[in-house]
Amino acid sequence: MRDVTNDFMSGVMRADMREKNGQLLIEIELPGYSRENITAQLDDGRLTIIAERNEEIEKKDTETHYLMRERVTGEIRRTFIVGDGVHEKDVTAQLKDGILKIIIVKSENAVEGQKRKLIDIQKVIQL
Predict the structure, then answer these.
(1) Which residues contact 70 (CB under 8 A, 6 or more apart)?
(2) Which of 38, 66, 90, 93 could form a disulfide with 105 if both were Cys (CB 3.0 to 4.6 A apart)?
(3) Rounded CA gap, 39 and 55, in Å?
(4) Are 34 and 40 in contact (CB under 8 A)?
């Protein structure tokens, strides 16, 4: 029997989102991606995560051919609605063991017309 779930989810960032102690916690599976290849940006109440992985295949190797190739190369992205009251100072992020953890504290003082802001992915955060 064929597992349709794996076909559907290939190339998609799997995520869990929950609220705890007044904070929004998002955990995203990104195995095989390095911190330098992940971008998190906040724009008008939306948090977008972009991850990129490129693998060069040696073209001069004529003896090898793939029978199956499931690992994603290129860019994947996912957007989460986090609300207009969120500012870049309210967001922390950490990549550890292939899991990107994002903590968002919503501010009650929303600023209208906020421009896009990039979120720094830290090495360590406190949960």
Answers:
(1) 10
(2) 90
(3) 19
(4) no
Q: How confident is the model at residue 97 (pLDDT cuts 50, 70, 90)?
A: very high
Residues 6+ apart with CB under 8 A from 89: none
Return the C-alpha torsion angle 113, 111, 15, 8, nearest 10: -20
For the chain, the first-to-last Cα distance in angstroms comes to 41
Cα 68–chain centre separation: 26
pTM of the model: 0.69
How far apart are the C-alpha atoms of 127 and 102, rounded to whole Å? 10
Report the chain's C-alpha Rg in angstroms.
18
Q: CA 100 to CA 79: how far, in whole Å?
A: 14
